[in-house]
Amino acid sequence: MKFYITTSIAYVNSRPHIGYALEQIQADVLARYHRLIGDEVFFLTGTDEHGAKIVRAAETAGKEPSEFTDEISGEFVKLTKKLNISNDDFIREALAGRI
């Protein structure tokens, strides 16, 4: 059986928080369970990198929006790795689409 799971794509106006980590762990448990029972699993997570809140957060940080989103999205990737999340792909949704 094929099984697809995704988390919400995190909004990068600030660094990851405990709620994001919890969602990642819950999705990971589900993905690992389905792999264990022999399902073909695709597990997707990522970030949403457009919107006025991000522009304002970048301005507050004294950075260009692209520099800011690269930095914050990188924190989400680091957390995913630190938690040993078994995702198959990590997308970065930007104003122009997938990066």
In short, what is this structure?
This protein has about 100 residues and is of the alpha/beta class. About 45% of the residues lie in helices and about 25% in strands. It has 3 helices and 5 strands.
Would you give an account of this structure?
- The chain is an alpha/beta fold and 99 residues long.
- It has one domain: HUPs (Rossmann fold, 3-Layer(aba) Sandwich), CATH 3.40.50.
- 47% of the residues lie in helices and 24% in strands.
- The chain has three helices and five strands.
- Strands 1, 2, 3, 4 and 5 form a five-stranded mixed sheet that branches.
- Strand 2, helix 1 and strand 3 form a beta-alpha-beta unit.
- The chain is elongated and about 50 Å long.
- The relative contact order is 0.24.
- The mean pLDDT is 93.
Looking at the overall shape, the CATH architecture is 3-Layer(aba) Sandwich
Low confidence ranges: none
Total helices: the number is 3
Q: Write down how many β-strands occur, each being a DSSP E stretch of 2 or more residues.
A: 5
- Characterize the main sheet: 5 strands, mixed
**Proportion of β residues?**
15-25%
The class by helix and strand makeup works out as alpha/beta
Q: Determine the N-to-C terminus distance.
A: 30 Å
Shape: elongated
The count of domains is 1
Give helix % range: 40-55%
CATH fold title: Rossmann fold
